[in-house]
Design goal:
alpha/beta; TIM Barrel; eight-stranded parallel sheet; 8 helices; 8 strands; 32% helix; globular; binds D-xylitol-5-phosphate; binds zinc ion; cobalt; D-ribulose-phosphate 3-epimerase activity
C-alpha cells in the first residue's frame, strides 16, 4: 500500500522540518486536510498554505477538500499546485462537473464518502474517478477512533471495481494505525492516510513502514 501522511497532525510551528522528515521516512503522498468550518466543524487552511507547502514538498500533494460547494474553489486549489484532489459527495450537487474540471487540468480526481454514506449512493461515479476516498472516521479532526464497520464498504467497493474492471484506486482515511492497517489492506485499500499514527509516533520511518507492509 502507498502511505499518505496527513500533515494536520504535524507540529505546525515546525512545518517545513516536519514535511522534510516525513518525506525522508518514505511517504508516497502528502495528505492535506482542507476544512471550511461549514461542511465540517473545524477550520484548517486554504490555497495560500497549499502553495507554500508545494514549495517545500517534493512528493505529490493529495488534498482532501472537506468544504461545502467545492466547485467554487477548485481553480484556486489547482493553481496552488495540487496533484490529487478529492471532494465530498455529501458537499456538492455537481459531482460530475467537479470530476471533469479536476481531470481536465491534469489533476487526479477523487470522491470522498463519509462513514454513513453508502457505496450505492456514489457507484455511478466510480468509473470516472481516479480514486475513491473512503472515510473511516467522521471528518473534522485527526486522532479519532477508526470505525471498523466501514471495512465492509471497502470490500464492497473493491469487489465492484474488480467485477467491472475499473482502475479506480481506493484511499482509506481516519484513525489508521499499524494494527487496523492490515484489515484495511485486506479489504482492498491501495493508499492509507495516517495523521496521528505517523506524526504522534517517535519514529516516522518505522510508522510509515509498518503501515505500508501491514498484512492481516
Ligand atoms: C479527518 C481527516 C483525516 C485525519 C487523519 O477529518 O480527513 O485525514 O486527519 O488523521 P488520523 O489518522 O489521526 O485520523
Ligand atoms: Zn483526510
Amino acid at each position: 500500500m502507498k502511505v499518505a501522511p496527513s500533515i494536520i497532525a504535524a507540529k505546525f510551528t515546525d512545518y517545513q522540518e516536519e514535511i522534510v522528515r516525513v518525506e525522508k521516512a518514505g511517504a508516497d503522498l502528502l495528505h492535506l486536510d482542507v476544512m471550511d468550518g461549514v461542511f465540517v466543524p473545524n477550520i484548517t487552511f486554504g490555497p495560500m498554505i497549499v502553495e507554500a507547502i508545494n514549495e517545500i514538498s517534493t512528493i505529490d500533494l493529495d488534498a482532501h477538500l472537506m468544504i461545502a460547494k467545492p466547485e467554487n474553489y477548485l481553480k484556486q486549489f489547482i493553481d496552488a499546485g495540487l496533484d490529487w484532489i478529492s471532494f465530498h459527495c455529501e458537499a456538492t450537487k455537481k459531482t460530475d462537473e467537479c470530476i471533469r474540471y479536476i481531470q481536465e487540468r491534469g489533476v487526479k480526481a477523487g470522491l470522498a464518502i463519509n462513514p454513513p454514506t453508502s457505496f450505492d449512493r456514489i457507484k455511478e461515479y466510480v468509473e470516472k474517478l481516479d480514486y475513491l476516498l473512503i472515510m473511516t472516521v467522521n471528518p473534522g479532526f485527526y486522532g479519532q477512533q477508526f470505525i471498523a464497520d466501514v471495512l465492509s464498504k471497502i470490500e464492497e467497493a473493491k469487489d465492484w471495481m474488480t467485477k467491472h474492471k475499473l482502475r479506480c484506486l481506493i484511499e482509506v482515511d481516519g484513525g489508521i494505525n499499524a494494527t487496523n492497517a492490515a484489515l484495511v489492506c485486506q479489504a482492498g485499500a491501495d493508499i492509507v492516510v495516517a495523521g496521528a499514527g505517523i506524526f504522534k509516533s517517535s519514529d516516522y520511518r518505522k510508522a510509515v513502514e509498518e503501515l505500508r507492509c501491514s498484512k492481516a
